[in-house]
Amino acid sequence: MTQPPFPGRIPAAPRPPGPSPATAAARPVPVAVPPRPARPPAPRPPRPGPAPAVPARPAERPLHTDAFAPARPVLVPEAEPVRISVDNNRCHIYGICQQEAPEVFRIAESGSLHYTRSVPAAYAAKARQAVRCCPMQAIAVHGGQSPSGGPAAIGRPPARPLRSGSAARSSLRRIVVAGAGLAGLSAATRLRERGFDGELVLVGEEPHRPYSRPPLSKQYLSGRLSQAQLLFRADEALDAHWLLDTQLTGLDAVASALELRGGEFLPYDGLVLATGVDAKRLPEAPVFSDRVRTVRTIEDAAAVRRAMHSARARHVVIVGGGFVGCELACTARENGMDVTLVVHSAPLLRRVLGARVGAVVGALQRRAGVDVRLSTEITEWQDHGDALRLRLDDGTVLDCDFVVLGLGSSPRTEWLRGSGLEISDGVLCGPTCHVVDQWGRTVPQIVAAGDVARWPNPRFDAEPRRVEHLIHAVEMGQHAADSLLRGPARAARFTPVPRFWSEQHGTRIQAVGIPALGTDTEIVEGSLRSERFVVRYSRQTAYGAQIVAAVAFDMPLELLDYRDQIGRTLPHARPAGRRGHR
Fold first, then answer.
1. 315 and 424 assigned to the same domain
2. Strands 270-273 and 402-405, how do they pair?
3. Last residue of some domain: 408, 431, 459?
4. Range with lowest mean pLDDT among 153-167, 267-281, 561-575
5. What sequence ranges are listed for the domain FAD/NAD(P)-binding (predicted)?
6. Which of 234, 248, 436, 528 has CA atoms 20 to 30 A from the CA of 446?
7. Which of 30-44, 52-66, 329-343, 559-573 has the highest mean predicted lDDT (pLDDT)?
8. Is 248 among the domain residues?
9. Which is nearest to 140 in space by CA: 170, 167, 160, 119?
């Protein structure tokens, strides 16, 4: 197959001086959906249990890692060509678009991005997936048949139904998506793509339509992106009811109904749990102080931005050495603030990237002027009204204007207590994304997706884990929707390769896989000294050394070669001194 022409071109690593104008379309007005009169909330029957157990299939047992094909999401083909445009002011050349649609996007050897403006129908679904996964929402798709059942699809035949799920789909009159973030949006869109023509309701606790969260700690905080520019652009026309600014208070899995604030019940025939996570707080930090902030929602980021741009704000203390804390430190330094990064462990990002690579991140931060305090804790907080005074465990006293907590997250599951579901460290799922209850039984009519879901990825092992990345939310939302329509007995296992990225003082950090699983690291491209390299992570298993991740510093093009290796085993090394037979 010949490569299509690439008439569009974007210079490498642009750094715009200011925000670009907002171009996002107006958001539809939320529509209230009253419960159906024919399904009044039933009295809660005694437990246990929501549903009979679905027997485990032999295929659900972990397989030899080389048994897995390269990870590619299942897409619904589109019948019409589309047009693509890329906003030069937003694009940061992360290369996610080339991973999703190499026939449409290409990173040149010089580091610039080239793309096809007119995309044939054969590649339209891949192009739309690239739009969904773009962290900066820099890509827009125009024309074609809207796969989400919105205005562009009026008068056109619906998408081809999922044949193997026809029996399950016939009984699904209303599907409710609990959580109006990216995972929920992705699941809802896939339901329409698969031909579900029943009632579709999205319930969200925030008053906004789904938006991209990764730029909150960087581009939005610095003012380079507006709130409208963060809205997801690929699935704006979704035929669904939106219940925004609506708090979820409970789930009756037996009566198949969600309980909303005020005691209202919303019955469902199928349910997608995608409520995401909350930002963690320190129990000893002042709860009601305006000078102690987290960055999880757009309101949080707006409050930090106001404090950061205040005329009196000169010194900020950031607690936490993960990606959020490090990116916040970058943004504060870009705005001319003095920054102290207080980290309980050492080095930075050790739990995510390991000690060797984390030390490189620490060097980047210190060179940019960040005061990095490793293996340090705050023992005393004093709020003096016009400033905060912090005492560290080494006796140091810090006076600052405000504190931002970047301590990670906790799954939003408190509203599911008493539901009978297993919710320790997230909603437990089986390999197909179907939810598992406290007695270990699969619940056929409930699936989970995104940051709140904990499931075993057989590509690595049988241990259930949560993965909190944007691309993962897109892919798991799609897979959960497919599994809900197919049913547990026919659904496929979800075996993705997680992918994530960050930017530290101009250095792009990208990863595929789960680096935290690695016990051995090997520099396979570049060098640590140059701070431009690819490192491969592996661990020993019963089948040999398994490749679990690869991380690239300023090498987005080179990283592409390692995505399909994740989960496979390294070739057996030949013992030294042995010679092969001729």
1. no
2. unpaired
3. 408
4. 153-167
5. 174-477
6. 234
7. 329-343
8. yes
9. 119
Q: Which residue has the tokens 């996964």?
A: 133
Q: Is the dihedral of CA 235, 236, 242, 246 positive or negative?
A: positive
How buried is 380 (Cβ within 10 angstroms: 0-12 exposed, 13-18 middle, 19+ buried)?
Answer: exposed
Contact (Cβ atoms closer than 8 angstroms) between residue 521 and residue 354: yes
Residue span of the structural domain in which 89 resides: 82-142
Q: In this predicted model, what pLDDT tens digit does every residue of 334-361 receive, in sequence order?
A: 989 999 999 998 899 999 999 999 999 9
CATH number of the domain within which 560 lies: 3.30.390.30
For the whole model, what pTM was predicted? 0.85
Q: Which helix (H) or strand (E) holds 219?
A: helix 219-222
CA atoms within 13 A on the CB side of 523: 12
- The two three-digit tokens of residue 352, written as one number: 């995510």
Determine the Cα–Cα distance for residues 548 and 539; give it in Å rounded to an integer.
7
Long-range contacts (CB closer than 8 Å, 24 or more residues apart) made by 63-70: 63/458, 64/543, 65/459, 65/541, 65/543, 65/546, 65/567, 65/568, 65/569, 66/543, 66/568, 66/569, 68/458, 68/459, 68/495, 68/567, 68/568, 70/563, 70/564
**CA dihedral (168, 173, 179, 185) positive or negative:** positive
Based on the fold, state whether residues 265 and 286 are members of the same structural domain: no
Q: Are residues 234 and 189 in the same domain?
A: yes
Strand partners, 211: 231
Residues 272, 201 share a domain: yes
Residue 551 has pLDDT above 60, yes or no: yes
C-alpha 360/C-alpha 553 separation (Å) is 10
| 98: amino acid identity, one letter | Q
Residue pair 218/206 in contact by the 8 Å Cβ criterion:
no
Supply 134's token pair.
Answer: 């773009």
Report how far residue 209's alpha carbon sits from residue 231's, in angstroms, rounded to the nearest whole number: 7
**Calpha distance 143→425 (Å, rounded):** 42
Instruction: Answer whether residue 179 is part of any domain.
Output: yes
User: DSSP character for 4?
Assistant: P
Three-state secondary structure of 240-254: CEEECCCCEEEEECC
Distance, in Å, from the CA atom of 386 to the CA atom of 308, rounded to the nearest integer, reads: 14
119 lies in a domain? yes
Verify that 180 and 264 share a domain, yes or no. yes
- Residues 6 or more apart whose Cβ sits within 8 Å of residue 123: 101, 103, 104
> Domain boundary at 377, 408, 439, which?
408
Strand ranges across the sheet with 434-436: 241-243, 199-203, 174-178, 270-273, 442-448, 434-436
